[in-house]
Protein 1
Amino acid sequence: MLQSMYSGISGLQNHQTKLDVIGDNIANVNTHGFKKGRFTFQDMMSQQMQGATAPGAGQGGSNPEQVGLGTQTGSIDTLHTQGPTQPTNRELDLAIEGDGFFRIQNPDGGEFYTRVGNFSRDSDGDLVTADGYYVLDDDGGTINIAEEASNFSIGSDGTVTQVIDGEPEDAGTIGLATFANPEGLESLGGNLYGETANSGDVNNLEAGTGGAGDIAAGMLEMSNVDLSEEFVEMISGQRGLQANTRIITTSDEVLQEIMNMK
């Protein structure tokens, strides 16, 4: 069989994966805190037809002769660039301006991490996510706003201040987590990330310290997906898929001519 046919198949498979990544980006264009994916290609190993030779007496050197065998996935990266912030004027909607993730308690005892700060209070006054996971403070404990509090506010450093009987009281400080390689985090769905062997150890910090960003109350971070860029990438992926389809059909026509030689 012609090697070009198998090269075309590898191109079809990987361009389809590229379109899958683009489709996920576009589907999540309005998902708060979503970080877009990026697909890259790399070539596969090449068949060596002739090796390189060094210059000799009376004759120069020659370059290697190789035939490529197709393409493969280079990487699927998650780009943790800052998304635009959307004002909501809701006191428990929080956005991180800069690096870092909110720390969320995993019911199994570990921690989740998220960029989405659409928090609320449960019936006990604890700060929780939309799925009911506890939001953690800078010491790893929960944050409770008392039922009798007449008012509360959240500062840019994550400090939660509540007013009880006309007196301000500290209700805790929302903690942030940073990683040496945030792109190494594992996406768990539900706007949550988990630590991996390549994300680096978690650094638990207060907002605005140690490289962590500030917290903006009454705001939510939007997706960092740029629709115009995604549509351009979609066109590129579609044309690449069509071109690889043409490789297969052309190779098939050549094989048909060979079969008809008899």
Note: The chain has a mean pLDDT of 93.
Protein 2
Amino acid sequence: MQLHFFRSAKRWDSALLPIDDNTFGLILQFRVRLVRVEPTTRFFMSDTYATGNGRLHDTYGTFHLDAWTNQEWESYKTNFVNVVQRHWSDKFVLDPDRAWYRPRMGANLTSAIIQCGLSIELVETSAQAHQTFRIIHPRENNFRSYVEMYNRTGLFTHLDLEPQWGGGRLTRVGNARHSIDFLQTTINHEFGHTLGLNHVNGVGNSDNNYGITLEQRENQMGLGGRLTTRHGRPWLNSLVDRHHIIPERRHLPEDRVKFTARVDSPQLIEYWDDDWQPTAAATH
């Protein structure tokens, strides 16, 4: 078994590092450029554009841009890193289906697990960056932030780092439909797209793509913030597609190792069922 510790790519780099005889860390490493958009900024990004007159236009309407103060901008940059890393790093473990790692010559094979980390380094130029995100400060609070996954870019607002309640969404709960309020931090949902994840019900922005049932809609790639084993797929893909682990002799059992992702972090309930009713006590 050959191990390649560092791999580079356009969307992010990755590092597979031994922690002890039974544990590795697989870290997805992002270099991110955050672009401060002012009322005088001119840019064109798909169907969204600004011509420097204090207004931003996209398919959902026209938005008025406010200026950033230096303090606001520096705080945003720091919080961006903290919020995304806190949500996505150290939340998953990749479990092997067999012993595969020999920590040193003559040692027995171990079933070493792989802990999944994520790190963000802010950079100053797009040439340095894996991802470039424009950040706007609109007066209106209904701009729909988005990521262009394959262009390695996105457009977010100053409000996207804070959890927000989305209220009154009719959602299937068992055989009934309830009005549910979901709590979600937009930047964590959008960074899921940066990681290559689609909406819980597939590609698209229709209401159904964000889920139909309560289980689907509370998902991070639905309307909520709940992580599932599916969200560990970017680490699995990096492990396999980037050949961090390369079999030497495929007839050996350890060279046929396969990994599966599991969530290794407590999950909060981040929704409120407006129509919930306590179950009537059984009578005897």
Note: Residues 197 and 231 are 7 Å apart (CA to CA).
